[in-house]
Amino acid sequence: MATALFSATSVAATSVAATAPVAAAAAASIGIFDSGIGGLSILHHVQALLPQHHLLYFADSGFAPYGEKPEQVIVERSLHIADFLLAQGATALVVACNTATVAAIRVLREFHPNLPIVGVEPGLKPAAAASKSAVVGVLATERTLQGEKFARLQREISQLTQVTFLLQACPGLAHQIELEQDSPDTLALLARFIPPLLDLGADTLVLGCTHYPFVRSQIEQIVAQHQHAKPVTLIDTGAAVARQLQRLVEQHQIAPATGPARLTGFTSGQKATLQQAFTTLLQLAPTVFEVQENRRDEKNPGFALQNF
Question: Which residues are catalytic?
């Protein structure tokens, strides 16, 4: 079991690592973070709606996956990442991870009350509206499904719509997508998680993790091969998250870049891995920096840029 490096209290009393911001990212920017590459599915929509804003993307791949970590560990991790992105010039934040949203967004807002923060959550409301059978399958991490925020949302939507939600935890799937999206191992996991939902009458599937849109075609393949194949609607909330961010950017009057907008990547994993994900998934080639934790500095915990 992973253990936290620093307590939430210590984060409040200290600042992020004393590292000068990357020159290319020092201007006012929108910070986006995820446990790995999944948040790139959100970044894609954000970049489309806000093309004139600098973007910072933090992939915490060195600590992925989040879905099997204790909640307090995710909270502490999210606080450190937020501090790092603020040090790099972020003036708004997107928690582009369902698990981190469930675990940490309330605390993030408490620590940063004046910072526009947008989270992601499984699209239960649009799924309920789309379902004709009134049975919706929800694919998500174990931590997302166990969270009180999700449980409260499920109760509210169920009471309003009388829709039955079938919850399917997908252990290992986000990690496998990090490794390789189009592979027999990925398909085998999907083939284990999806058919039971279809057998129980689900005609709508919620992609409750930002990694899952990157295997949409494989999900559609599993659905098409099901013995009782029928049309199934897939719900991805990436576009809705970007629209909410756009509203907050306008509300807080966050100015766009005065020159060409830049995208800068940061990762706690391997730089080459995030660069490859940008290229393969989004056909982008931004500058990417590796970061490391300040494990030895208890007075100044957080992340620092490597070799910068």
Answer: 97, 209
- Percent of the chain whose pLDDT exceeds 90: 80
Specify the pairing of strand 117-119 against strand 303-305: unpaired
Give the chain as a DSSP string. ----SS-HHHHHHS-S---PPPGGG-SSEEEEEESSSTTHHHHHHHHHH-TTSEEEEEE-GGG---TTS-HHHHHHHHHHHHHHHHHTTEEEEEE--HHHHHHHHHHHHHH-TTS-EEE----HHHHHHH-SSSEEEEEE-HHHHH-HHHHHHHHHHHHHH--EEEEEE-TTHHHHHHH-SSSHHHHHHHHHHSHHHHHTT--EEEE-STTGGGGHHHHHHHHHTSTT----EEE--HHHHHHHHHHHHHHTT-PPPSSS--EEEEESS-HHHHHHHIIIII----EEEEEEE-TT-TTS-SEEETT-
Mention the CATH class of domain 8-120+239-305: alpha beta
Q: What is the mean pLDDT of residues 251-261?
A: 93
The domain ranges of the chain are 8-120+239-305, 124-236
Q: Please tell me which residue, 259 or 24, carries the higher pLDDT value.
A: 259
What does the chain come to in residues?
308
**Average pLDDT taken over every residue of the chain:** 88
CATH of domain 124-236: 3.40.50.1860
pTM score, whole prediction? 0.87
Q: Which two tokens stand for residue 156?
A: 């509210």
pLDDT at 13 (0 to 100): 26
* Nearest alpha carbon to residue 15 among 307, 299, 267, 305: 299
